[in-house]
Automatic annotation (TrEMBL), chain B:
An example Gene Ontology CC term for this record: cytosol
Name recorded for this polypeptide: THIF-type NAD/FAD binding fold domain-containing protein
Family: Belongs to the HesA/MoeB/ThiF family.
Residue intervals of the THIF-type NAD/FAD binding fold domain: 6-238
Organism: Aerophobetes bacterium
Single GO MF descriptor: thiosulfate-cyanide sulfurtransferase activity
Pfam families: ThiF
Length: 70, 253
């Protein structure tokens, strides 16, 4: 049986199955991995590291980036 | 010097007469004069920033009028250059400051000239490449700059003080990792609020208040959410730690 861990995703607590990756989280938000910025525990997570498996109490921010100036 | 026009701002304890005088002695470069840029130029000109340089290569179009507050139908009909129109309008609002329009692209060959002598650079550009170029030029020349970006009813901003705070590369990774989006959906309140956030940070920097916002701020007006996201400098940041400026100085190792 896969156990669950508690993380923070975009500021809110969330239970996820152990082994879930950052890439899974991006998909769960229906965002394009090419168009997001990801901060893991306040530090940039490079795109090459989106296969990172989440750990208990990780704080993850996944945001679309905004390039337009209006 | 008659400071009457700034009397309300002088009454504000964060600025005062001393702060107002500092603003009048300040010089900024604004890159981009669209939705964000019009509000930034408007706020800083009315607020008495002494020298404002506005850089934009584009002409006013009808679809700009929904949100770009310095332009009117006549400007769109004539396809007038945004930077020049903005300067003309602002001269009628505050003739006691120096305003300069630069109708040109911002490129590696000219950006350092454009920002030279500025105490601060305001980002209101419409693409990531120029924003990364601003980041490199400002980090290299140790000039603070303020990022702003919008999409739909959302927006974000961060203040970059070279050698003190995270830079754009620390937070977003290296260029060219972001595809450009082309024409985007946008309600007018998003750039107005983000630009107002940027100009408040600008006032603090220019009056010498060190209590700058340390976070990346992110808001979405439609659901009414606002978030502060803690950011850190990357220990191996190619731009602000290793000082490699790949866009500004291509080919240099």
């Amino acid at each position: 049986m896969v156990s669950s861990i508690e993380i923070k995703l975009n500021g809110e607590k969330k239970m996820v199955k152990e082994g879930k990756t950052v890439e899974d989280m991006i998909q769960s938000l229906s965002l394009n991995p090419q168009r997001v910025m990801v901060m893991l525990n306040s530090e940039l997570l490079l795109r090459t590291k989106y296969s990172y498996s989440l750990k208990e109490e990780d704080e993850l921010e996944i945001l679309p980036f905004f390039a337009a100036g209006g | 010097m008659n400071l009457e026009r700034y009397s309300r701002q002088i009454l504000f304890s964060g600025i005062g007469e001393k702060g107002q005088k500092r603003l009048l002695e300040s010089s900024i470069t604004l890159i981009g004069c669209g939705g964000l840029g019009c509000v930034i130029a408007n706020n800083l000109a009315r607020g008495g920033v002494g020298r404002i340089k506005i850089v934009d290569k584009d002409m006013v179009e009808l679809s700009d009028l929904q949100r770009q507050i310095l332009f009117n139908e006549e400007d769109a009909k004539n396809k007038s250059p945004k930077a020049r129109v903005a300067v003309e309008k602002l001269r009628g609002i505050n003739s006691s400051i120096q305003l300069e329009a630069k109708v040109c692209e911002v490129e590696p060959r000219n950006i350092e000239n454009l920002i030279e002598g500025s105490h601060l650079v305001l980002d209101a550009t419409d693409n990531m490449k120029t924003r990364f170029l601003i980041n490199e030029a400002c980090v290299k020349n140790k000039i603070p700059w303020i990022y702003g970006g919008v999409f739909g009813s959302m927006g974000m901003s961060m203040t970059v003080v070279p050698e003190k705070t995270p830079c754009l590369t620390c937070v977003f990774g290296e260029f060219p990792s972001f595809p450009e989006l082309g024409t985007i959906p946008l309600i007018n309140a998003a750039p107005i609020i983000i630009a107002s956030w940027q100009t408040t940070e600008a006032l603090k920097i220019l009056v010498g208040d060190e209590n700058l916002n340390p976070d990346l701020i992110y808001l979405d007006l439609w659901p009414g959410s606002f978030r502060r996201i803690k950011i850190k400098r990357r220990k191996d940041c190619p731009t602000c730690i290793e000082r490699k400026f790949g866009l500004l100085e291509p080919g240099k190792k």
